[in-house]
């Protein structure tokens, strides 16, 4: 039996109700594909927007990579001059080097 397909297909009405936590550019990207971020991805985004550090543990195919990079992408989209600040770590993403069988 093939693995379950991630539920990325959502109705247009659902996609139109993207959370306020998402910047317009990223929300538009989701909307243009008919996608909606998963709740744990939004939880990570909200926590980092509040200044918290985050550890996310989720099963394979749950969208951990997007959850890890969504806060960085959101901050870069909303703060274009952020790239000029070179004296602090912005994102540390740790992942296995190869997928587990």
Q: What would you call the shape?
A: globular
Average predicted local confidence, pLDDT: 78
Multimerization state? single chain
The helicity comes to 40-55%
**Largest sheet composition:** none
Beta percentage is under 5%
Count of helical segments? Answer: 4
Count of extended strands: 0
- Helix/strand/pairing category: mainly alpha
Span between N and C termini? 16 Å
| Uncertain residue ranges | 1-11
Cα gyration radius (Å) = 15 Å
Order of helices and strands: HHHH
Explain what this protein looks like in three dimensions.
By secondary structure, the protein is mainly alpha-helical. It has a domain of 67 residues. Helix content is 41%, strand content 0%. The radius of gyration is 15 Å and the shape is globular. The two termini are 16 Å apart. The N terminus is likely disordered.
Tags for this model:
single chain; 101 residues; 41% helix; globular
Task: Show the helix and strand layout.
Blueprint: H1 12-16, H2 24-33, H3 39-49, H4 64-78
Helix pairs in contact: 3-4
In summary, what is this structure?
With 101 residues, the protein is mostly helical. It is built from four helices and no strands.
């Amino acid at each position: 039996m093939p693995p379950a397909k991630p539920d990325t297909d959502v109705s247009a009405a659902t996609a139109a109700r993207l959370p306020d936590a998402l910047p317009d550019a990223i929300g538009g990207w989701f909307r243009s594909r008919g996608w909606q971020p998963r709740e744990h991805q939004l939880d990570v985004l909200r926590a980092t927007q509040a200044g918290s550090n985050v550890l996310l543990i989720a099963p394979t195919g749950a969208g951990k990579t997007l959850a890890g990079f969504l806060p960085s992408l959101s901050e870069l989209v909303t703060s274009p001059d952020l790239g000029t600040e070179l004296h602090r770590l912005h994102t540390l993403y740790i992942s296995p080097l190869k997928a587990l069988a």
